[in-house]
Amino acid sequence: QVQLVESGGGLVQAGGSLRLSCAASGSGFSINAMGWYRQAPGKQRELVAVITSGSSSHYADSMKGRFTISRDNDKNTVYLQMNSLKPDDTAVYYCNALVNIIGTERPYWGKGTLVTVSS
Predict the structure, then answer these.
(1) Measured at the alpha carbon of residue 10, what is the angle toward residues 5 and 14, in degrees to the nearest 5?
(2) Alpha-carbon span 55 to 24, nearest angstrom
(3) For strand 104-109 and strand 46-51, is the pairing parallel, antiparallel, or unpaired?
(4) Which of 40, 74, 77, 107 has its CA 20 to 30 A from that of 33?
(5) Contact, 1 vs 106, CB < 8 A?
(6) Distance from C-alpha of 113 to C-alpha of 95, rounded to nearest angstrom
(7) What is the dihedral of CA 91, 13, 24, 107, to 10 degrees?
(8) Read out DSSP for 33-70?
(9) How far apart are CA 75 and CA 81, in angstroms?
(10) Which residues contact 87 (CB under 8 A, 6 or more apart)?
(11) Looking at the predicted structure, is the pLDDT value of residue 12 above 90?
């Protein structure tokens, strides 16, 4: 089994910054793409950013220029640096990883970390 554990959420004022981390643990696996999604109250879960094992990244339009995704393959960890935060960024942020175990790939999710941006 593979577990994803997020950290780094919290309360920040508008214009501030936060850095989220997500570490994958387990054995006998490799990770392809990793990403961050978020779900605001009353809204559907949406993509924030994804990054491949080769560190190619893709961002949702509203996050471009403010958020930066990165990963450390040796640590099986993905990061999300969030700058210039807005109240609309308030959401639970979920880590996602496409995990390969013995030739079978499936997505795994973390339990989420809450980010609250006050105005």
Answers:
(1) 135
(2) 17
(3) unpaired
(4) 40
(5) no
(6) 9
(7) 20
(8) EEEEEEE-TTS--EEEEEE-TT--EEE-GGGTTTEEEE
(9) 17
(10) 14, 117, 118, 119
(11) yes
